[in-house]
C-alpha cells in the first residue's frame, strides 16, 4: 500500500444498495483517495438474504466475480486499492456465509462483518428503520 492511512469502509454506486444509484463510483473514490493520500478498500454490502430474493440486487445471480473484476482493473493501475465485502450476518445463513468466505478468501483483501438487522426487514442503520423499530418496542425493553 502506498499511503499511511486506509479507509476500509467504502460503498460504491452500482454495488451497494444504499448508494446504488447516486453514490460515488470506483473512479470517484480513487480520485479522492489519491488527492488526499489515503488507501481505499471497496467494501460494498453483501446481504445474502436480499441477494437471494431480489433480482435488482447488484450481487444477484452470482455477480460477485463481476465485482472483483471491476476492482482488479482498478488495481492494475493504482497501488492503493483493496478489494473487500461488508458481509451481513444472518444466523439462518451462517453456513452459506462461511462457505462464501472460504471460497473467496484469496480473492478479497478484507472482509468486514456487519449486523444491520437483528430482525429481517428492520434495518437499524437507516433513520426510518430505527425509528420504526423504536416506536414498536415498549420503552422499558430498550437497553442503552
Summarize the structure.
The chain has 144 residues and is α/β, with parallel strands linked by helices. The chain has helices at residues 26-36, 48-53, 64-77, 94-103, 127-136, and strands at residues 5-10, 38-46, 81-88, 110-114. Helices cover 35% and strands 19% of the residues.
Describe the structure.
The chain has a single domain (5-118), classed as Metal-dependent hydrolases (TIM Barrel), CATH 3.20.20. 35% of the residues lie in helices and 19% in strands. It has five helices and four strands, in the order E-H-E-H-H-E-H-E-H. The protein has helices at 26-36, 48-53, 64-77, 94-103, 127-136, and strands at 5-10, 38-46, 81-88, 110-114. It is globular, with a radius of gyration of 17 Å. The mean pLDDT is 86.
Radius of gyration: 17 Å
CATH class: Alpha Beta
Beta fraction: 15-25%
Number of domains: 1
Mean pLDDT: 86
Shape: globular
Estimated helix fraction: 25-40%
* Gross CATH architecture: Alpha-Beta Barrel
Q: Order of strands side by side in the largest beta sheet? A: 1-2-3-4
Largest sheet: 4 strands, parallel
| First-last Cα distance | 39 Å
**Structural class designation:** alpha/beta
- Can you tell me the CATH superfamily? Metal-dependent hydrolases
Count of individual beta strands = 4
N-to-C SSE string, H for helix and E for strand: EHEHHEHEH
SS summary, helix count: 5
| Low-confidence regions | none
**What is the fold named in CATH at topology level?**
TIM Barrel
